[in-house]
Specification:
This protein is an alpha/beta fold. The chain contains ten helices and five strands; from the N terminus they run βαβαααααβαβααβα. The structure holds cytidine-5'-monophosphate. The site of cytidine-5'-monophosphate has 15 residues, from helix 2, helix 5 and helix 9. Pfam families: Cytidylate_kin.
Length: about 200
């Protein structure tokens, strides 16, 4: 039976970690929908047209090692503002969401546009500073050279662009449960998300 968990929120709020943990605990499949936009954005950096890139994505593109860089994140957010690019990625996401055995999808518009009927909707947030610090730790851990101010300003640029776009902007669904992880440990955030899923199962 299909059971969909939609997890949305701004960049580096903890959606990925929470989604993977929920998927593990309940045996659901997980799709990080940001990867679709990152893979599309990455190909535009080589000069490929954004819509051609979105229409021809393969599973191999989603596995590329270099999707987590700041340049690719900004390119992702630019292509994500193009309505035709978003439209090209809808069917894949909806089919994934309704597969049998349950699915967790995380992104920006899962609860609002992709899966408005999801059984569970969470909107995960944290303060800008906490999100920037988490992303900084992640990037430094991978050997990128950067600093707090650069990461903070990148996140804020991306969130502003994602929130202001006309098509499927970053926003909470009216019926989503808000999860502010500013003062939470990973374990606490995961436990709160799992409790929500367990309540609806
Ligand atoms: O989640 P992640 O930071 O990897 O997403 C990269 C970018 O992809 C976001 O800044 C956003 O512009 C776009 N995105 C989107 N809708 C989604 C997931 C990601 O517009 N469902």
């Amino acid at each position: 039976m299909a059971f969909t968990v939609a997890i949305d929120g701004p960049a580096a709020a903890g959606k990925g970690t929470i989604s993977r943990a929920v998927a593990d605990k309940f045996g659901f499949a997980h799709l990080d929908t940001g990867l679709l936009y990152r893979a599309t954005g990455r190909r535009t950096l080589d000069g490929t047209d954004a819509l051609d890139a979105a229409r021809s994505l393969t599973p191999h593109d989603l596995d590329a090692d270099d999707l987590r860089t700041p340049d690719v994140a900004q390119a992702a957010s630019r292509v994500a503002a193009i309505p035709e690019v978003r439209a090209a990625l809808v069917d894949f996401q909806r089919a994934f969401a309704r597969r049998s055995g349950g699915a967790v999808l995380d992104g920006r518009d899962i609860g609002t546009v992709i899966c408005p009927d999801a059984e569970v909707k969470l909107f995960v947030t944290a303060s800008d500073e906490v999100r920037a610090q988490r992303r900084l730790d992640e990037l430094l851990g991978k050997g990128h050279e950067t600093d707090f101010e650069t990461v903070l300003s990148d996140l804020q640029t991306r969130d502003a662009r994602d929130s202001a776009r006309a098509t499927a902007p970053l926003k909470s669904a009216e019926d989503a449960v808000m999860l502010d992880t500013t003062h939470m440990s990973i374990e606490e955030a995961v436990a709160a998300a799992c409790a929500e899923v367990a309540r609806k199962q």
